[in-house]
Amino acid sequence: MVIETKELALAREHPRGTERRRLLPYRDALNDAAAYAALAESDRDAIVRWVETRRRIKEEFGIDHDPANLADPLLPAERLRAHVLAGERAAAQRTDFVDPGGDLIAAVAELRKS
Predict the structure, then answer these.
(1) In degrees, to the nearest 5, what angle opens at C-alpha 47 toward C-alphas 44 and 51?
(2) DSSP states of 65-92 as a string?
(3) pTM for the full model?
(4) CA–centroid distance for 34 within its chain
C-alpha cells in the first residue's frame, strides 16, 4: 500500500469529508477493537490506509482533531492509530506487539506477518 501525493493533497484539502467517506462504513469497527478484528483484511487495509494518511497530514501539515472546534468531526490521529493497532493485535491474537511509531502501514505489515 502506497499513499500517493494526489491522495495526500485531497486529504489535506478536505480532511473532514474524506475521513467521513472513508470511515463511515466502519463506524462499529472504530468503536470496538473486536469488531475491527472481525473485519475482512481488505476492510482493515482501507482503515489502515486512511489512518496512515491522517498521520502524514498531521505530521506534514499540522492537520488533526481540534478540541476547540466543536463542529470538527475529525477523530484524533493518535486515538485512531491506537485503536487500529489494538484491533490488529486482536486479529493476530497477539498482545506483545509494541507500536514502533512512524509508518502505520509498515507497522501493521510487521504485526500481521509474525
Answers:
(1) 135
(2) --TT-TT--PPPHHHHHHHHHHHHHHHH
(3) 0.93
(4) 16
Do the Cβ atoms of 29 and 39 come closer than 8 Å?
A: yes
Q: Distance (Å, rounded) from C-alpha 65 to C-alpha 92?
A: 29
| Percent of the chain at pLDDT exceeding 70 | 100
Residue 91 has which C-alpha cell? 486479529
Q: What's the pLDDT tens digit per position in 2-51? A: 899 999 999 999 999 999 999 999 999 999 999 999 999 999 999 999 99
**Cα angle, residue 54 at apex, residues 50 and 58 outer, rounded to 5°:** 170
DSSP state letter for 24 = G
Contact 15, 74 (CB under 8 A): yes
What backbone torsions phi and psi does residue 34 show, to the nearest 5 degrees? -65, -40
